Amino acid sequence: MQLPACLRACRLIPPQPRAAGYAAACLAPPHPFLPLISSLARHVAALRAAAGRLLACGCGGNIARPRRAKTWRRDAGRRSVLRWAIFQYGEFLMGREAEEEVCLKISGELASRGEERGSGGARGRDSEMAGGLAGGGAAPGRAELYEGRITGYFILACIVGSFGGSLFGYDLGVSSGVTSMDDFLKKFFPDVYHRKQAHLHETDYCKYDNQVLTLFTSSLYFAGLVSTFGASYVTKRRGRRASIMVGATSFFLGGAVNAAAVNIAMLIVGRVLLGVGIGFGNQAVPLYLSEIAPYRIRGAVNQLFQLTTCLGILVADIINYFTDRLHPWGWRLSLGLAMGPATAIFVGALFLPETPNSLVERGHLEEARRVLEKVRGTHKVDAEFDDLKEASEAARAVKGTFRNLLAARNRPQLIIGALGIPAFQQLSGMNSILFYSPVIFQSLGFGSSAALYSSIITGSMLVVGALISMVTVDRLGRRFLFIEAGVQMISSMVVVAVILALKFGHSEELSKGVSTVLVVAICLFVVAYGWSWGPLGWLVPSELFPLEMRSAGQSVVVCVNLFWTAAVAQCFLAALCHLRWGVFVLFASLIVVMSIFVILLLPETKQVPIEEVWMLFDRHWYWKRVVRKDPKYQGNLHQQQEMARA
């Protein structure tokens, strides 16, 4: 968009007619200095007033922001720091949505929101604002009519959601540390303990090669895979809050059983209960946050869930570092502390309202409106409530969604979003490092405490990567982060493999310098994953599916992800034993395949309205040959072209 149009829209230069402003904003090429102007407007205090209008109109026309938004900004000093930070962060991530809506006015998209696209009703697009799994995308036609403010209920929902993410992350981190503790191994896996103490170089790679030990880790994810089907039913029929409470209860019981375990059977039962809790929590908590959050900061809230997962891993690594010194019951404390976040989630859920979306979906319209008014802090919720009802009606009209995933028009989304990216996310080898980082470092000659300390470093790098991704994903694009991280991850794995092949297992211990290089290489691998395949492995699939396929597609994504998570966890230690340093060459080779997959098949979705992502495949060099074979796709494309000409 042209710089004069941007300044005119923000009332910094004289206005021109509204229609001309829309045309200039949507059809003109980007001005080279616009990013600099936007950056200055956001960060320089002298331009704060201009930045407010800039975010309100999205540089595209004289669309006035409701005065309540300026009140939030003006009252930031009197309100809590948390409310102000949440709103500002949401503005930063979601500031382009008003611009997208202006462009939709030109294309005629808003005029067609009540018409059907393909086998499902595209009128349900309004549900993307009213509450969906994907955060982001263009604003619906009535979004500018929505009123409300950040309330205490929303802040409480953020806290509960944060505990949900940290709960999942805590389990990822705690299991890796416990499986390397001597007291834990002596009690349940004495053979592994004796091999660990042997210090024979020829068996270093195989110290932890025990299928029952790996079953301790992977059983959770197999249980989570199965429980997602029941969780989906409970979430839809009984509500999001009920599913959250079921998940918290199951996770609490799992932590208690594991902490009190006296044999391997109790350990596995506890892990299964933990898996059921994670299956229910991962199904319900992100959906709850998406539906309860104000429109402008929905994407920020979804990113917060991913960040707290990484923080949970880091906290677990720190706890393992200290409990390893508590003999002989330190491992029980590590496993038992999982009851803490589970208790917090359950107690918090008691005070949470059910989401208006769920109440409307189940026919409780009066209660839904009452809850919506309470959550938004205003009685003026007519526009949003109408969108909720329309979205619910459109969702009921969609039939045969899983069967339609196989249609030619949805083939790119199926292959890229539902099958490719979730599988590659696990085959990158990152979760193997998360599961077994202390085990890996001990196998490479580090002591027990040094191994746990090194895992803290890798956990910190994962958090850093997640923060970098939040800042750069909408600036640099998805493809850039995937490809750059691919190069960095491949280089790191090759360095690790070469060092181990030359220096390790030849009747000599690794020197301190070589060990440091290994830790640095693994950290570079982890931080690259943290800003690419980690968060984007969930974000990109949610962007690719059209609305009528999104629920079914997301279910397939979760199932594929959990399946490969469990499979990699079960097989990694055996692969490390038999392939030795070659396992890192294997991961490097898989990352090469992943990067080629992204380069050839994934279109860039940065700054593309979520309702229009499906049209990218019509311009893709390969996918256009697939999707154009579908008669319904041809009809949809012709309809879009006619509306654009109109």
Automatic annotation (TrEMBL):
Its name, as the record gives it, is Sugar transport protein 14
- Cite the CDD domains for this sequence: MFS_STP
Q: How does it sit in the membrane?
A: Multi-pass membrane protein
Xref: InterPro entries: MFS_dom, MFS_STP/MST-like_plant, MFS_sugar_transport-like, MFS_trans_sf, STP/PLT_plant, Sugar/inositol_transpt, Sugar_transporter_CS
Could you list this entry's UniProt keywords, alphabetically sorted. Answer: Membrane, Sugar transport, Symport, Transmembrane, Transmembrane helix, Transport
Positions of the region Disordered? 113-133
Which GO molecular function terms does the record list? monosaccharide transmembrane transporter activity; symporter activity
Family label: Belongs to the major facilitator superfamily. Sugar transporter (TC 2.A.1.1) family.
NCBIfam families tied to this protein: SP
Point to the regions of Basic and acidic residues compositional bias: 113-128
Q: What is its main location?
A: membrane
Major facilitator superfamily (MFS) profile domain ranges (all copies)? 157-606
Q: Please indicate if the UniProt record lists tRNA processing as a keyword.
A: no
Does RNA-binding count among this protein's keywords? no
* Subcellular location field: Membrane
GO CC, one annotated term: membrane
User: Which sequence ranges are marked TM in the entry?
Assistant: 150-170, 212-235, 242-262, 329-352, 414-439, 451-473, 480-502, 514-534, 555-575, 581-602
